Prior knowledge:
By secondary structure, this protein is of the alpha/beta class. It has 3 domains: about 130 residues, Phosphohistidine domain (Glucose Oxidase, domain 1, 3-Layer(bba) Sandwich); about 110 residues, PtsI, HPr-binding domain (Enzyme I, Chain A, domain 2, Orthogonal Bundle), CATH 1.10.274.10; about 325 residues, Phosphoenolpyruvate-binding domains (TIM Barrel), CATH 3.20.20. It is about 50% helix and about 15% strand. Bound molecules: phosphoenolpyruvate and magnesium ion. The site of phosphoenolpyruvate has 11 residues, from strand 12 and helix 19.
Amino acid sequence: MHKGIGVSPGVVVGVAYRVESVLGSGEPQTLDNAARIPEEVARFDRAVEDTTAELETFVQRIALELGTPAADIFKSHLQIVNDPELTARVHAGIEKQRLTAFSALQVVMNAYAAQFARIDQEYFRERITDVRDVMTRIGSHLTRKPGAADNGNGSVDSHPGDEPVILVAHEILPSQAMNLGDLPIAAIVTEIGGSTSHAAILARSRGIPAVSGVENIMNDVVAGDLMVVDGREGHVIVRPDREATAAYRKVQREFFNFKDSLIANRDLPAVSCDGTQVELLANINNLADANAADTVGATGVGLFRTEYLFLTHHDVPGEEEQYEYYRQIVLNSPNKTATIRTLDLGGDKTVPYLGRRNEPNPFMGWRSIRIFFDNPKLLVTQIRAILRAGRHGKVSMLFPMITTVEELRRLNTMVKEAKNNLKREGVPFADDVKTGVMVEVPAAAVCIDALLRETDFISIGSNDLIQYLVAADRDNPKVAHLCEPLSPSIFRVIHMVLEACQRTGTPVTVCGEMAGQARSALVLFGMGLRRFSMSPAFIPQVKALISSVTTAQAERFAHHVLQLSTNEEIRTYLSERLREVSSVLEAIDFA
Ligand code: PEP
Ligand code: MG
């Protein structure tokens, strides 16, 4: 059994599918016999052809779903895969050094990586990500088991047998993460990445069980191995015995049956036993998520992360394009209600066109709103597009990573100026778009009173608030034990912010992942939170949870939790309470 971090709940028994890393450091493999050279060259050429075909299909699909600029990124991948120099270098590796096609590809990839690292201009240096993405696609064609077909996005179109497919990778690249939802992947296991990395968030939003931080799993798994993934406990079993397989298959059936049964509560209101109503909103990353939010019965979108629009572009999307995309998001959001967050890049999400400095601590550095203050035009464009999209529903604008009141003032002024300019230009927009502050830097929590005087609403981003509060990178498995919502410090800080909002009558939402986790949601409800925003997949169970408690009961739990001193005490106490409230929900809660 391997132990990692459960980043998306659920249990799956399935067969392993490896996504090979082409940036490997292992010893290159040579062919045992020179007679195999022509066959190996042909195998590489076939992998290039297959990659080309799949990219062409992929470009068409992305163009339909996300528009032409997003598709352009993958068009450039077509140029890379068909680059004659790439083919010549890999052929030379096979023919002259007698390398296997995969090793020759690795050697060329490592040489490209070194070459790109020497490039001065940031934009061109960053193109290595695209090269790596393409090489990974070719690599996965080369390592595929005969009979299996893969579309190169870390997904499998068909595979031997009827077992679900478990993706095993060192890491999931952004383009692979974008495709998780549409493909028949049953679970994901990675060696790196934490519970709030973008890949984990996307897996959760699609309800795919996932475990990350599983060291050396790639050394233990071969394609086609039977595996068990327990995304709640963070356990991975490779080649389980008969008893374990049978036991986990049973849990898998129960888990998915229960989740399916919960969807039945879609049209019921989210109310506690004694009639306290809460709003359950969805965190979304793209249009597909907006529709998923509607399917599970969210009453609106509490957080639309606009990064994913920018991550799929070659350069900054213009105002018209942003407006059109936000308009679609609003129209497809439940009750046409959406909180659109301004761009939150930096940290784990970077785009080449904004430039990335080599920062020792990217999460503490040039991130989010801080990037915008150095590129105010970008922000003005986004603010205008959001204000314009506001005409199509009930739209709010949310600013991430606010640290000081000065920042908020500057943003409020920019919004005011954008409105004046739109008015002067005669461009229609919604004047009543509310603006809000994300509380995710401890400084903002500490000075919440001052911020509340100058904002319409608050959204607590607990993912970041936790990592900054405990000084532990949210993506680093080594410090994952500190990045834990069930802790005295995080509950105290959130309690303080909620009280300040209640005092001033300011609407407040929690939109970090803890809002969707039963144990922490119970405490948040008891502290008086009435607006929860979470991955759509969690909405049915939080609705079931709220409808299983009374307000007074939850208040008692919250009051008690605030008296406890350690994570362990809190976890034990809440697990017991949750079991009393609903043993089934306790069984599927994670974190
Ligand atoms: C958060 O930090 O809690 C949050 C919701 O934002 P993100 O996960 O996108 O950083
Ligand atoms: Mg955040």
